[in-house]
Structure prediction request, 109 residues.
Amino acid sequence: MESMRAVVYLSVCLSVLTSLCQGQRSADSQLQSASDEPLLGLTTSELAEALQGVLDADSRVGLSVEKKASVIPRCDVGERCAMKHGPRIGRLCDCLRGTACNTFFLRCY
Prediction:
């Protein structure tokens, strides 16, 4: 049973890898043929300058790609840790280590 599972797993992995390699090979051949033709009547250097201008404009505005870490407060045992909004449960705080938020009582136990 275990060897059959390994064979199935290996065959699935190989088929996914093969399909990814086929897509990569076809994309490479398309890129080579497209690079010879100018895009929108612009040369590569003009496109590079335009891209650099857009990137410089983003840095001046101060756009940040980094995700800010959200800090969730900690709950003690017996405190309310969640609220129910219809079928959804919204977290109010994170229970201490060794406890979990009970989804029926909505308290840390």
The helical segments are 2-35, 44-61. The domain at 74-108 is CATH 4.10.40.30 (Omega-AgatoxinV). The CA atoms of residues 12 and 93 lie 41 Å apart.
